[in-house]
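Tokens in:
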């Protein structure tokens, strides 16, 4: 009788005599856990630390995100945020305020003055508030004397300002008054620092809002103020009917007072932008977590599979002694699942303490948000604790159950091929012995190298993301600088009272007054007409404004054919919306139901904005502006002889690069974290899987030592294979990751951001990745 048959027979006799199956054998098996943990302490410790940091970061992100989102949502009631605001030519009378109240809204004074500071930035000065759009004090104290000012916290951080520092108004703006910073604040209606509502991106470095005392504000010349008023509806308005209610209110408001500007809360970028962005990345971050967990689960599974191969005779003996396949699967799954669970629980503690604050600081590094209170998130706990454990259980169960489906006899004989003898892959004898040996090592460890390739592919994707964004933004700024239509574009703001169809005579007078007030003597200036429409929702694209230019025949700044009603799309618009010559694009009125269809006659090379270009006469005709009407200027020099109240927007280099500048500020630190995590993950995967391969070939390595090979020669066999494959995987992953990153970057820009940033990478990014 063979030894293997004797072992199987003995196991059957023991089961029969005991009558309890493998019950008495369970304790010895359980005692292996500590021994296995000690023998592979380095491996388990490295994976535990990686899981701990990663789950801690994910938990901290989700907790901070949900806490911030709740604080933002509660701020509408807590700080009594407006339902909208409007600006007028002059101060409202008490009679006009009473008429507006009868129209269904309470009015609150919200006047301000914009001033240039000696540090080259712009500050919007408000008086202290006590009724609407209340202020959250973040540090220091509110201004108490006329020479004190409380500035936005985000602006202060970006310009290295603290309470006690001073800010001086430029002499061109007045008497050069100096303010002492008393505190840092967050204005509830400026959670994102948009200077104008139609800006593509806010700018928390060059622009700030602030509050000063009522006494200091009263010293300003009324003619220098912007007469802005906030309103709150007297009756509650829901999200479903706020647009309809706003349309009704603006009609009533226009009949009472001529309007220069009208911005309902639900389209106010300064209010809604941060709220939309806070939770918009949750889906991507969760996907990121699941991918990392799957890769680590496969690392555990490959390790366990290698252990099964190494302990095949022991497993055969245990199976012959009565242990079931399910019991052995649970045994080999215990440590991976236990390590994952421990890392998840401790990671959540880390997430609710240190990592939560780190992620909250990332939000505070982008937005002017009020203070928040950490909230317990059941969903975050389940997703960062239950999900990793489930992923670990499922993947390990699938791989281990497949590995352990063989009979006890096959384990005892170490015949683990799982089927008929498939033989080995024949290799030509012409291949040198060392090369054939390395190829055999590769074929014996294909599964381990497959996991390594997946890990390198993902780690390189993260590293590319971290290195790519600054490079893309810098290239975009260089491209915009060399592709500007003119050094300055002035978009004029037509008063709402000049386009009131119900008061045609008064509108005509207001329009004539406007046209007279916007004439300039600047010799480099060229008139154009402009209009803003909005894209239709859906199709995976973010709804956004499109600027329409109506240019003069033979324009010095925009060279297009203005004959035959031709319309050209800017290259940015064409690339983002995948337009080409001959396509038709449908746009809508931002505040109405009118739709306009344009046939694209060509693509105009301009990356600065999403725009359409056509002849000035055509634009004036389409929007019934009248012959000779213009609403903007191209100019190579600044225009200084137009009343600022008629200038709605100035498009210059700082304005065009505002998006990239702010993204650099917002994501600069985050990209460094992503880079570090990618490199750490890369190193850990190589260490773990390299260790598995060495352990799996321990017997072969011993044989080569017996044959007289030195450690250096053996390393040349085993380590060299992994090194060569890592380099190959790296070179293969670079084009794959670049392709995937380009697709992902385009999808994110199309669905989440206004405007367009081309995915323009230089080769130095790939050189840095390889290094």
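Residues out:
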């Amino acid at each position: 009788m063979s030894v293997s048959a004797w072992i199987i027979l003995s196991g059957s006799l023991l089961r029969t005599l005991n009558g309890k199956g493998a019950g008495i054998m369970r304790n010895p098996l359980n005692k292996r856990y500590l021994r296995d943990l000690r023998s592979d302490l380095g491996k388990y410790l490295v994976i535990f630390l990686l899981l701990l940091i990663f789950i801690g970061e994910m938990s901290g992100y989700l907790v901070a995100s949900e806490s911030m989102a709740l604080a933002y949502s509660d701020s509408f009631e807590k700080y009594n945020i407006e339902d909208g605001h409007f600006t007028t030519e002059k101060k409202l009378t008490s009679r006009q305020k009473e008429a507006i109240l009868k129209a269904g809204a309470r009015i609150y004074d919200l006047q301000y003055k914009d001033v240039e500071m000696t540090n080259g930035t712009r500050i919007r000065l408000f008086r202290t508030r006590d009724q609407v759009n209340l202020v959250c004090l973040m540090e220091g104290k509110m201004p108490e004397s006329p020479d004190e000012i409380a500035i936005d916290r985000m602006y202060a951080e970006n310009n290295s300002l603290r309470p006690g520092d001073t800010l001086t108004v430029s002499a061109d703006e007045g008497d050069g008054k100096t303010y002492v910073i008393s505190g840092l604040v967050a204005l509830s209606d400026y959670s994102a620092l948009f200077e104008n509502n139609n800006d593509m991106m806010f700018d928390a470095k060059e622009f700030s809002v602030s509050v000063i005392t009522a006494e200091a504000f009263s010293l300003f010349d009324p003619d220098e103020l912007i007469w802005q008023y906030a309103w709150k509806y007297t009756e509650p308005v829901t999200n479903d009917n706020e647009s309809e209610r706003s349309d009704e209110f603006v009609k009533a408001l226009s009949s009472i007072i001529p309007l220069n500007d009208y911005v309902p809360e639900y389209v106010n970028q300064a209010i809604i932008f941060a709220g939309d962005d806070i939770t918009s990345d949750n889906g991507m971050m969760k996907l990121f977590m699941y991918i990392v967990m799957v890769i680590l689960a496969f690392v555990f599974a490959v390790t366990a599979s290698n252990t099964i191969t190494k302990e095949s005779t022991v497993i055969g003996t245990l199976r012959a002694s009565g242990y079931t396949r399910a019991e052995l699967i649970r045994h080999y799954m215990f440590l991976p699942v236990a390590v994952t669970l421990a890392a998840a629980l401790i990671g959540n503690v880390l997430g609710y303490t240190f990592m939560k604050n780190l992620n909250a600081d990332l939000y505070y590094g982008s937005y002017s948000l009020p203070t928040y209170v950490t909230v317990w998130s059941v969903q975050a706990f389940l997703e960062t604790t239950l999900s990793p454990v489930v992923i670990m259980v499922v993947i390990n169960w699938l791989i281990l159950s497949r590995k352990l489906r063989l009979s006890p006899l096959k384990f005892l004989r170490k015949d683990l091929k799982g089927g008929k003898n498939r033989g080995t892959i024949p290799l030509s004898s012409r291949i040198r012995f060392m090369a054939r040996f390395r190829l055999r090592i590769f074929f014996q460890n294909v599964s381990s190298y497959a996991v390594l390739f997946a890990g390198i592919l993902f780690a390189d994707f993260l590293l590319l993301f971290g290195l790519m964004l600054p490079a893309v933004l810098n290239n975009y700024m260089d491209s915009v600088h060399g592709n500007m239509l003119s050094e300055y574009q002035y978009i004029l703001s037509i008063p709402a009272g000049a386009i009131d169809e119900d008061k045609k005579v008064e509108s005509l007078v207001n329009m004539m007054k406007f046209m007279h007030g916007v004439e300039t003597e600047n010799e480099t200036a060229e008139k154009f007409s402009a209009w803003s429409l909005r894209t239709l929702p859906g199709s995976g694209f973010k709804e956004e404004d499109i600027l329409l230019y109506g240019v003069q025949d033979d324009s010095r700044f925009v060279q297009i054919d203005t004959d035959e009603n031709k319309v050209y799309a800017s290259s940015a618009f064409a690339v983002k919306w995948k337009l080409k010559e001959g396509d038709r694009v449908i746009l809508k009125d931002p505040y109405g139901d009118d739709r306009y269809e344009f046939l694209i006659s060509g693509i105009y090379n301009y990356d600065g904005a999403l725009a359409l270009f056509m002849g000035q006469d055509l634009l004036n005709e389409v929007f019934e502006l009248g012959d000779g009407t213009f609403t903007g200027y191209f100019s190579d020099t600044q225009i200084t002889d137009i009343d600022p109240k008629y200038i709605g927007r100035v498009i210059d280099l700082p304005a065009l690069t505002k998006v990239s500048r702010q993204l650099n500020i917002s994501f600069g630190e985050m990209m460094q974290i992503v880079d570090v995590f990618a490199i750490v993950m890369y190193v850990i995967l190589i260490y773990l899987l390299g260790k598995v391969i060495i352990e799996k070939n321990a017997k072969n390595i011993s044989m080569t030592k017996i044959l007289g090979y030195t450690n250096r020669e053996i390393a040349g066999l085993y380590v060299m294979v992994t090194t060569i494959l890592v380099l190959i995987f790296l070179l293969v992953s670079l084009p794959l990751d670049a392709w995937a990153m380009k697709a992902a970057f385009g999808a994110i820009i199309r669905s989440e951001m206004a405007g367009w940033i081309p995915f323009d990478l230089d080769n130095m990014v790939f050189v840095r990745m390889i290094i």
